[in-house]
Specification:
The complex is a heterodimer. By secondary structure, chain A is mostly helical. Chain A is built from 40 helices and eleven strands. Chain A has eight domains: 2-63, no CATH class; 98-246, no CATH class; 261-383, no CATH class; 392-468; 476-591 and 637-693, Cytochrome Bc1 Complex, Chain D, domain 2 (Orthogonal Bundle); 713-797, no CATH class; 804-912, Cytochrome Bc1 Complex, Chain D, domain 2; 929-1044, Orthogonal Bundle (Cytochrome Bc1 Complex, Chain D, domain 2). In chain A, the strands form five sheets. Chain A has a three-stranded antiparallel β-sheet with strand order 8-7-9, with no helix packed on it. The N and C termini of chain A lie far apart (128 Å). The model of chain A has no long low-confidence stretch (mean pLDDT 91). By secondary structure, chain B is mostly beta strands. Chain B has one domain (48-258): Immunoglobulin-like. Chain B has helices spanning 2-17, 75-79; strands spanning 51-59, 68-69, 85-86, 102-107, 121-126, 129-131, 134-138, 142-147, 153-157, 167-169, 176-179, 184-190, 198-204, 209-211, 217-223, 226-234, 238-246, 251-253, 256-258. In chain B, strand 16 and strand 17 (238-246) form a beta hairpin. Mean pLDDT of chain B is 85; it is low at 8-39. The chains are: A mainly alpha, B mainly beta. The A-B interface holds A 401, 405-406, 408-413, 415-419, 422-423, 425-428, 431, 434-435, 438, 441, 445, 448, 600-601, 626, 629-631 and B 4, 7-9, 11-12, 14-16, 19-22, 24, 27, 29-31, 34-35, 37-38, 160-163, 181-182.
């Protein structure tokens, strides 16, 4: 049969060779059309057609629309869920309605309605009558009015004889009589248009009045009804039964099809909700509610949707994936070769936040991402890797120097211009011209003044930036004065041996490399004299170490026994590493350097330099001018460790304690550290490994960064990530993606050298940080989210607030930089580390915790806060104490913040509490003599022993105080906050030592609740207000007067 | 604008090179080093047949009484005087001679150019009083201000057509040298520390001016023949002018009379 078919097809072609016209050709004996059956081909092709048709239908209905089945399933499961939910909600609603509060409202409502019923009936009847009369004339009047208006229009738009005709028409219309029958009247009336109009207007007015009366009468019942609704709504968890029923009903009209979000402005088309049908449902749906289908669950973090409208932002800008894809899970999730943005894995989901929130130091709703950024900052990844938003001080310093030069240059140019303008004025033809030019010169002069102002501001900023620069690692110029020499080589080789928790990473050094580096570091250190210190008392040192606040940042104890913070070094073995004398100096003032550094001359300034300039060898923040060039010196160690304002004796005690804790290791003598021949090689190695990224090292202060810029690492094409010999393995094992690359690199930075034979200096340089799985996930999330700014979302959608919220972003940088959260609660939900220390678990020590700072911006006067942050002792003459809470053992240290940092912190607290700037203190009415007497009695009354807890300045008394002195109130506190604090301290600070219930509400005022003072009997004003005003005029004299009693 | 940019770039480069330095000098207009006047080639007058204009300025009204000056604010000033000090607004000499009148050739010399005299005109501050009270100076001629007092003064001219300046001068300090590039009748000068101090400077583009002395007489010499307008200015009584024609080598008499 097949052969026949072929023959059939061939036949027409085989004839082509024939030269005769077709009519002369012989009639074929076997006409294929007549003689052969086409049944088989026909059958085959129709079968094919059928199959294709069925296939097309299948694809149309199911193949290309797998979501149809999901939608069916969703509707079924969702309606089952809602039907189950409804009775629960209904019983909840009934319970609420049965409650005393609701019943009370209900009675009120019934009463109110009963009250108004007769009056309402009357008004309704009246309203009906007016409406009926209006109805009777309305049609006639409307017709008449339209006719007249049409005529007026014609008159206005025509002229000549036609106009005259229209004017006659109008007269006729106005004289026409209209017949109307009012309800309740038998006889019709005949009215002119004017009369009709009057009647209509007066009826309208009556109608308005009646309706207003009706609304007034109904006011109370409707108000109570609204209150009832609010009462239920506030107490219902989830929707009411009625609302649930509404949802069930809406499922009857469920729209099968693509559910898509389209934001044309962003170029966004997201069809995710075609399958993820419950994501934005008004009820919370858990997977368990839908028979374990994760697919149909609500968004697990609804609080995120509250601030990101899904109709605007869709899904894929945060989650990645291919929003258009609906044919399969993998296409929708973008998990195929040619899609650049595969869905973020659940553990890295927060990476997406960074696309728009790239500038934020901390995102409350993205803990993993924030932790990743903090790892990046704290570990000093930015020492080697440039990353936008990090090392800002150093970069700003460079820009700043250029800016100052530019401004000075500009000033000079303007000055020359002024000279030329004046010269032209002197030579001008006319006085007018001269005066015009002189005026021009004057305005240019003002420009010079403005440039001076700006240059001065930039210079100040430059000095501040120099104070703000901090390095992740210590200043290595100090090694010779600070360290035991022989300890150094072991540390360089592997710091984790000596201190497993250190953030100093392990470089994979060859022995000769380690030796050369150690030798160079040792030899590049500066020499200096240390004051010799006597031994202290280790017992006292231990007490101080545990109570002054050291442990909010530092831990002590090794391995599982470590207690304390991880922000700074574990100090268990610090005694084996450092010189005692240096340790005392460091504890006393960690910012103290041996020699100042001049960034202009790019070298350290020695006592000899000072002597040559005839100046005393004194350098600190007040004496920071370079004796050689006059530029600003770096006079501090670039460490974030603050000054705890300890006395020398206390410093010695703590140092002795730390020394005594160390196991007392001995190290092999390493005399070769002094071998100057090793130094050049060591310096080259130090540069090769980028040590200067984290440390200040002599001659390498201005070194650049050696690592890859990670600002847009998450957007880097995959081919540019060098998986090296692991490429095939990665593809096979399914981790050939950004996440896989980052995770393995972070876990083992040498991983992509595996299998390669390389010279030591060609190997990968990234050191090993000893990160745990959680830290790797955090950092990976951060890197995945580090994408190019224009990636997917246009920049105008990025979070770049220009209002107070930008102050919050700036402030977090400083809070994290100095670890304020080691001691303070800054944001609700966050707990300071200090609270978890064993000491503060004892009940007597709880009151010794540093104050929480939530709401600080509303509590204190920002001008006071500025002063306090500059000097927390608040008293130049008495540095060894807390300025506000002298009774606390733990001490608010002096961070030597730059003016710029103080400003940012003050604005940060202000912004968190939505405080306006500048702060204008509220004026309080002064007390009358009688009020003063009352306030004093109240203040010292045995029922309100304010001064028992609040510090008074009396040393004996203050030892047991638990609250600040009233002497500080007027300059420190804001009156509005203080008032709220007095009447309800537990709202502002749950668990505070300040008792609640001092005042009770009576009518519209607060009255003293703990005793009835005879003198207050006839006092009609607010008692809390009286105490407040008294506190804001409280002075030291007043304090003495009260104590004298 | 392009030039300004270029200069700006040059200066910037300079500043960058000199990076580590303190603050620069302040922006003080260097008026005393003003560029030499453009030599627009106006010829000097031919003085071979020069004449002169001379005369007297007198006052015919009732002599007003000058206000008393109280120098209590500065004891150094008080010490310099024994009796009552009065302002010098109106000083009348014998025969009604009006002292301190500034007489100058207002017009008729436009076709000539004049060299700027090399010697400076001096204004002294003595006993907390400007001496002389009225003075004339040629445009761009140096004005040398002295401070003979043991106290700080500040010299503050208030011109309308020149640039205003205000410079303090320490007690017995070194002379202040400035000049006025534009003609102006008259520039009042005051001292902000001692508000009673007043002087008037007449800035004239040629050397033909005079100030009447105690006898009320003035004399303008070496004037080339021509038609002139002569103007007399007095601090309180305003201005008067007269047309005169000076013939070759003629000594012309001109008198002014103010009546208050």
């Amino acid at each position: 049969m097949v052969q026949r078919l072929i023959a059939l097809l061939r036949r027409p072609f085989s004839r082509r060779g024939s030269r005769k016209p077709f009519w002369e050709r012989p009639v074929p004996e076997e006409d294929p059309i007549v003689n052969s059956s086409l049944a088989v081909p026909m059958a085959v092709s129709s079968l094919l057609l059928m199959v294709t048709l069925i296939w097309a239908f299948y694809d149309e209905g199911w193949g290309l629309r797998p979501w149809r089945a999901h939608q069916d399933e969703f509707v079924e499961r969702y309606s089952t869920f809602l039907r189950g939910l409804k009775p629960r909600q209904a019983s909840q609603e009934e319970e609420i309605k049965a409650s005393e509060g609701y019943q009370h409202l209900l009675r009120q409502q019934q009463e109110a309605e009963a009250d108004v019923t007769p009056r309402l009936a009357e008004i309704t009847a009246e309203e009906g009558a007016v409406d009926a009369r209006l109805g009777a004339i309305e049609k006639t009047f409307a017709t008449a009015r339209s006719e007249i208006q049409a005529t007026i229009y014609l008159i206005e738009t025509t002229s000549g004889s036609a106009r005259k005709g229209y004017e006659e028409d109008r007269e006729e219309l106005e004289q026409r009589r209209y017949e109307i029958v009012l309800p309740g009247e038998d006889a019709p009336q005949e009215l002119s248009y004017v009369e009709l109009e009057d009647m209509f207007n007066s009826l309208k007015e009556q109608q308005g009045k009646v309706r207003a009366r009706k609304a007034a009468v109904l006011q109370r019942p409707s108000r109570v009804r609204r209150e009832m609704q609010t009462y239920v709504a506030n107490r219902m968890e989830g929707l009411t039964a009625g609302q649930v029923q509404g949802l069930i009903n809406s499922l009857d009209d469920f729209e099968y099809g693509i559910h898509q979000i389209h934001n044309g402005d962003m170029g966004l088309v997201d069809r995710c909700e075609t399958c993820h049908l419950g994501v934005t449902a008004p009820v919370t749906i858990r997977a368990a509610d839908m028979g374990g289908m994760e697919l149909f669950a609500s968004h697990p973090r609804k609080e995120l949707l509250d601030v990101h409208d899904t109709e605007v932002y869709g899904c894929s800008p945060c989650h990645n994936g291919n929003g258009i894809g609906t044919v399969s899970t993998d296409t929708g999730h973008g998990r195929y070769k040619h899609w650049l943005w595969p869905l973020y894995p659940p553990e890295n989901m927060e990476a997406g936040c960074l696309r728009c929130h790239g500038d934020a130091a901390r995102l409350d709703l993205a803990p993993v991402l924030s932790a990743g950024r903090e790892q990046f900052r704290w570990r000093g990844c930015w020492g080697c890797h440039p990353r936008q938003g990090f090392d800002q001080e150093r970069l700003a310093l460079l820009v700043n120097q250029k800016d100052v030069a530019t401004l000075e240059g500009e000033k000079e140019a303007v000055r020359l211009l002024i000279e030329r303008t004046v010269a032209r004025a002197d030579e001008a033809e006319t006085n007018e011209e001269a005066n015009r030019l002189y005026a021009e010169a004057d305005s240019l002069t003002l420009r010079v003044a403005d440039l001076d102002t700006r240059a001065e501001r930039e210079r100040q900023r430059g000095r501040q930036l120099l104070e703000e620069v901090k390095t992740p690692g210590p200043n290595l110029k100090e090694v010779r004065v600070k360290l035991r020499r022989d300890w150094l080589p072991g540390w360089i080789e592997n710091p984790h041996t000596f201190r497993p928790t250190t953030k100093m990473p392990r470089f994979r050094l060859e022995e000769d490399q380690a030796q050369a580096i150690s030798a160079f570091i040792w030899q590049s250190g500066v020499n200096g004299d240390l004051e010799e210190q006597a031994q202290g008392d280790p017992e006292q040192g231990k007490v101080l170490f545990e109570t002054r606040g050291c442990m909010s940042c530092h831990a002590i104890g090794e391995g599982d026994e470590a207690v304390g913070g991880t922000f700074a070094a574990n100090l268990s073995r610090v005694g084996d590493k450092v010189n005692y004398d240096y340790l005392v100096r460091w504890i006393n003032n960690p910012r103290k350097r041996t020699l100042p550094y001049c960034p202009t001359l790019k070298r350290d300034i020695t006592p000899e330099d000072y002597a040559a300039a005839g100046k005393p060898f004194v350098f600190d923040l007040q004496n920071n001018e370079c004796p050689i060039c006059g530029g600003t010196l770096q006079v501090q160690n670039p460490t974030v460790m603050p000054n705890l304002r300890l006395s020398m004796e206390e410093s010695r005690d703590i140092a002795t304690y730390l020394k005594s804790r160390a196991p007392g290791a001995e190290y092999a003598a390493a005399a070769w550290l002094e071998d100057s021949e090793l130094a050049p090689k060591g310096r080259a190695m130090v540069r090769h490994f980028g040590c200067a990224g984290c440390h200040e090292i002599a001659t390498l202060e201005e070194e650049g960064k050696i690592g890859t810029d990670l600002t847009e690492e998450g957007s880097k094409p995959l081919e540019r990530l060098d998986f090296a010999l692991l490429t095939q393995t990665a593809k096979r094992e399914g981790w050939y993606n950004h996440k896989g690359f980052f995770e393995r690199k972070l876990e083992n930075p040498a991983v992509y050298d595996e299998g390669k034979i390389k010279e030591p200096l060609e190997r990968l340089r990234m050191p090993d940080f000893g990160l745990d799985t959680e830290e790797i996930t955090q950092l990976t999330t951060y890197l995945l989210g580090s994408v190019t700014p224009e990636d997917r979302v246009p920049e105008r959608y990025h979070y770049r607030p220009r209002d107070q919220r930008s102050h919050i972003q700036e402030g977090w940088d400083i809070i994290l930089k100095y670890n304020c959260m080691g001691c303070h609660q800054v944001a609700p939900g966050q707990q300071p580390l200090v609270k978890s220390l064993p000491l503060y678990q004892q009940e007597d020590w709880r009151e010794q915790l540093p104050p929480p700072l939530v709401g600080e911006g509303a509590r204190v006067d920002p001008n006071w806060l500025t002063r306090f942050l500059k000097n927390p002792a608040l008293d130049e003459d008495r540095p060894h104490r807390n300025g506000v809470r002298p009774y606390l053992q733990i001490r608010m240290p002096t961070f030597t913040l730059s003016d710029g940092e103080v400003e940012k912190l003050v604005r940060f607290f202000g912004a968190l509490a939505q405080q306006p700037l500048p702060y204008l203190p509220k004026k309080l009415e002064p007390l009358s003599q009688r009020e003063l007497t009352m306030a004093r009695q109240l203040f010292t009354h045995p029922a309100a022993p304010c001064l028992r807890c609040h510090a008074t300045g009396d040393l004996q008394h203050d030892r047991n105080a638990t609250a600040p002195s009233f002497e500080l109130v007027s300059e420190r506190l804001q009156p509005d906050w203080t008032r709220r604090w007095m009447v309800h301290p537990e709202i502002i600070q749950p668990g505070t030592s300040m008792p609640s219930g001092l005042f009770q509400r009576e009518e519209n005022r607060w009255i003293f609740a703990l005793a009835d003072l005879p003198i207050m009997k006839d006092y009609e004003k607010d008692h809390a207000d009286l105490v407040l005003r008294y506190m804001f005029q409280f002075t030291r004299q007043e304090q003495r007067r009260l104590r004298g009693r | 604008m392009e030039r300004a940019k270029f200069i700006f770039a040059l200066v910037m480069a300079g500043v960058l090179v000199a990076s580590c330095g303190g603050g620069g000098g302040d922006a003080e207009p260097a008026a005393d080093e003003a560029p030499a006047p453009a030599a627009d080639a106006k010829p000097a007058p031919d003085l071979s047949q020069a004449g002169s204009v001379a005369g007297k300025v007198s006052f015919g009204g009732t002599t007003p009484k000058n206000a008393r000056i109280r120098m209590d604010a500065d004891p150094v000033c008080v010490k310099e005087h024994s009796g009552i000090v009065r302002s010098q607004d109106v000083l009348i000499g014998d025969d009604g001679a009006l002292i301190n009148t500034f007489v100058w050739v207002k017009s008729g010399l436009e076709q000539y150019g004049f060299d700027t005299p090399a010697e400076p005109v001096t204004l002294d501050q003595k006993g907390c009083i400007y001496t002389p009270h009225v003075l004339g100076i040629q445009t761009r001629q140096k004005l040398q201000v002295l401070n003979s007092d043991g106290t700080t003064h500040n010299v503050h001219p208030l011109p309308r057509n020149n640039r205003e300046w205000n410079q303090s001068q320490r007690a017995k300090g070194k002379p202040l040298v400035r000049s006025f590039p534009r003609a102006e009748i008259m520039i009042p000068v005051k001292c902000n520390v001692h508000p009673w101090m007043k002087a008037y400077i007449g800035v004239v583009p040629h050397p033909y001016y005079a100030v009447t002395g105690t006898d009320g007489a003035f004399s303008i010499e070496n004037l080339p023949p021509g038609d002139y307008v002569i103007e007399a200015w007095h601090e309180k009584f305003g201005v008067q002018e007269q047309q005169v024609t000076v013939q070759a080598s003629e000594a012309k008499e001109v008198s002014f009379e103010f009546s208050g």
